Amino acid sequence: MxxxxxxLKQLKMNREKPSLxxxxxxxxxxxxxxxxxxxxxxxxxxxxxxxxxxxxxFVENLxxxxxxxxxxxxxxxxxxxxxxxxxxxxFVRVLPGHAAIMVHMADRKFYVDVGYGSPITxxxxxxxxxxxxxxxxGEEIIFTGRxxxxxxxxxxxxxxxxxxxxIIWEPLTEEELQQDIEESYKDSNNNIxxxxxxxxxxxxxxxxxxxxxxxxxxxxxDIREYHFREPAQWISTVAEAFQLDEKxxxxxxxxxxxxxxxxxxxxxxxxx
Length: 272
What we know:
- By secondary structure, the protein is of the alpha+beta class.
- It is built from 9 helices and 12 strands.
- The strands form 2 sheets. Strands 4-3-2-8-7-6-5 form a 7-stranded antiparallel sheet, with helices on one face. Strands 1-9-10-11-12 form a 5-stranded antiparallel sheet.
- A hairpin with a 2-residue loop joins strand 7 (about 150-155) and strand 8 (about 160-170).
- The longest helix is centred in the N-terminal third of the chain and has 14 residues, at about 20-35.
């Protein structure tokens, strides 16, 4: 099976002619079936340095290990899929530290983002009006136009803003994002992604949100938190919640420990 067919199989989608409706369904399936997670980012960094996995690598590890990735891996490989399906795509910077997709359809341009770990469940035509608001899992996602080339992306929970980013609405190639990609792998105080374990998956009415040893299950009624004290139960629970292989999860603890960061007590973790 070729990589495009295998990717579509993981998405539980068939090949169709490009359309806005098809694009929206691809996005929704992607968010529910392919996780945002840092396990694969740590692995790729160890294996090949500051590079986004190739399309073939991405699909193979998606099939065999359940991996998705972080913003660059997810959005770049989703854009590669879209191109193979007949869509026209560019990339856009989202500052600080993020990148998304610009999908061109006739004379219209849509913001697409399957790599932010947030419920951006449809393509957004940013220039069509001054403000767009999405809701999901107790969160508001607000896009506000500053001018034709810049938009503010704001995430709010319970009325409080917890993330603000700036979308630079100018089309870029993969090559033009290479320095941004390299920065995303740096072990520095400004790049928390490489210093903690994170994962997000949207499944039905539940959002699974992992931050180190704490797993939250968020739905429209409540938020349940599970705090783990020892690695073995944490590894098996995370593997089940995110449909990931256990080896990559265990490797992430070693990756951080090598940098002096212990998700669990150092002695307990070494026993695992």
